[in-house]
Design brief:
Blueprint lengths: L10 H13 L4 E7 H5 L8 E7 L7 H11 L21 E6 L2 E9 H12 L5 E2 L8 E2 L1 H9 L1 E4 L4 H8 L5 H27 L3 H22 L10 H5 L9 H9 L6 H23 L8
Parallel strand pairs: 2-4
Antiparallel strand pairs: 1-2, 1-7, 3-4, 5-6
Helix pairs in contact: 1-3, 7-8, 7-11, 8-11, 10-11
Length: about 290
């Protein structure tokens, strides 16, 4: 992975300011810095992602959250944050703020749900569900990665700290479960695309092969014991992993970059992607315990 970059001078001050103000609100259990800023991989123009962890068993005072956002935001307008669940089950709401001219994303997180999913990950139980902005579904392991990398700025009961201890190292059971599940997923997507390819169904084939690539990349993250956070840049980042089939990224790029339009061209693309997935399966078989796949 890239060497961690030094935090810009303004970052801690901004996070502390938001954490102090939002932390005054009942029901807010933690405020953490996440995303590329927490990982040290941010660009100069990257947004600042702040996770707002709440207790779903308590009331969620949206009007107080909105009032705090209005105070913090340069524009001082109301309606800057969403109700719970507005964006879906994984990223279940938040807001886009502008603070001192910098873009700050507030992302709601149900602390109890996150704790449950992280505990499942440690035991090798994985899950995913539909979520806008996540082409292969919101992967439960994202919560584990977020906890691993995040920097708490408000955690009075040390609940985030406890979860970070639980996920301090990449869970081996999670990694094995992810490899088995997503190798199957990638193979299934290439298999199911073959018939439509023969009928010239470009849209369906492109969707299947894109998903096959996404699942294969999840396998690369797992065998390299890297926490996965988002589909964005994951294919690019995985090209630098030490464990990967030599031709994987070249072949995937060439296939998705020129699927073709005719039935013959689409069929060739499906077969080419199938060969990539088969090679990845063999690559993993050599590195995992016998009989696991």
């Amino acid at each position: 992975m890239n060497e961690r970059q030094a935090d810009p001078a303004w970052l801690d001050g901004l996070c502390e300011r938001v954490a102090y103000r939002m932390g005054l609100i009942g029901g807010v259990k933690a405020i953490v810095l996440g995303g590329s800023r927490a990982r040290g991989t941010a660009r100069e123009d990257s947004d600042t992602d702040l996770g707002l962890y709440y207790d779903s068993s308590e009331s969620f005072p949206l009007e107080q959250i909105d009032a705090a956002a209005r105070e913090l935001d340069d524009r001082h307008t109301l309606g800057l944050v969403t109700p719970l669940g507005a964006w879906g089950p994984g990223v279940n709401g938040g807001g886009w703020l502008l603070i001192d001219g910098r873009h700050v994303d507030i992302l709601y997180r149900d602390l109890g749900r996150v704790r449950e999913v992280v505990e499942h990950c440690v035991r090798g139980q994985i899950e995913a569900f539909y979520q806008l902005g996540h082409p292969i579904g919101f992967q439960g392991q994202i919560y584990a990665g977020e906890i691993h990398f995040c920097r708490p700025f408000h955690d009075p009961a040390s609940e985030i700290k406890a979860l970070k201890l639980l996920i301090a190292k990449y869970p081996s059971k999670m990694g094995r479960a992810l490899v088995v599940k997503h190798l199957f997923d990638a193979q299934f997507e290439t298999d199911i695309a073959l018939g439509p390819a023969g009928r010239g169904d470009l849209v369906y084939v492109s969707q299947c092969l894109s998903r096959a690539c996404g699942f294969a990349v999840l396998v690369l993250y797992a065998i390299n014991q890297r926490f996965f956070l988002n589909e964005k840049n994951s294919f690019i980042e995985s090209a630098s992993f030490p464990l990967r089939p030599e031709n994987f990224h070249r072949e995937v790029g060439a296939t998705l970059g020129a699927l073709g339009n005719s039935a013959a061209e689409l069929t060739r693309s499906v077969m080419r992607m199938r060969a990539v997935v088969d090679e990845l399966y063999g690559f993993c078989s050599e590195r995992l315990p016998a009989g696991l796949l």
